Amino acid sequence: MSSNKSVLVLGATGGIGGEVARQLRDAGWQVRALKRGAEQPTERRDGVNWLRGDAMNRQDIIHAAKGCSVIVHAVNPPGYRQWSKLVLPMLDNTIAAATAEGATIVLPGTVYNFGPDALPVLHEDSPQHPVTRKGAIRVELEKRLLKASHNGARVLIVRAGDFFGPKAGQSWFSQGLVKPGHPVKTVSYPGERGVGHQWSYLPDVAQTIVELLARRDALDPFACFHMAGHWDADGTRMTQAIRRAVLHHTEREPRVTAFPWWLLTLVSPFVTTFREMREMRYLWRTPVQMDNTRLVAVLGHEPHTPLDEAVEATLIGVGSIAPDQQNDITHRIFGQGHHASFIGTSLHGGRDKVE
């Protein structure tokens, strides 16, 4: 197995990128990250070597990736602006750097590649017939990575369900179910009654990536894996976990209401984010479940934080549990030990949007 444990993480100030960077650091990797507008060319902070650079500048990426065996591509354009125009050129920059170094590109994947015809159970080789603009771009991202795997680079894609976690940024959990920074009085659920849905806790996704990278030399040049995450069979498991966490610490049980899709329909012509959320409604009307057989065959297991623990840490991270309650809750989470190390680290750092 390769002894080179130098990695460049693009998007390390965001949710999944930041979590992967911290866990790789803790696993003994030498972690580099780019930071736009940094005052100094390099800065060592929290065990990460931060370099001044921009993921939209190819030479910055090539320079930062020198000597790296892995590049984690978890980056989005600033403020998510012009995502559809910039996301493919940004990936091309990463591919150029990885090809030059013979490095492995890691892409955190989503279910957006798949249209209704592939549901309800998604396998790594399920047909990809996206019905949304974002889904079509996701398919093109993976096509370009497949081509790169034939030209000297290696590729690892880990697809997961809807992200949630303390630093997950803009996700369905924080955009739909709860309001970040506010006490949880109402849980607004986007799904149809009785329709199953899959969730993925960011620290679990990051740990999966770290464990797969430890075995990267044994993987195919283009390797793709699905995570099972947290399966909510009827749409009530996640909302009830939120209610339990809030009730335990505030003695006020929040109501569960239907997500206001009608409002998104009304304002989507004027707000791009709302329009894209509305396009994804098909993923809430049909069960979406991912098969992790291939992942378990390689790792022997899937990293999995208990749902109540993961939801509680997420509510703390998004500021939906009052500050005067956080110390006691964090102490209790740390005291459990099993997942405390990476839950704790994920409570700190910047917050960017996560697709």
TrEMBL record:
Domain NAD-dependent epimerase/dehydratase: 7-219
Lineage top rank: taxon: Bacteria
Signal sequence, renumbered to the chain: none
Gene Ontology cellular component list: cytoplasm
GO molecular function: aldehyde dehydrogenase (NAD+) activity
Cross-referenced PANTHER family: NAD(P)-BINDING DOMAIN-CONTAINING PROTEIN-RELATED, PROTEIN YEEZ
Name of the protein this chain belongs to: NAD-dependent epimerase/dehydratase domain-containing protein
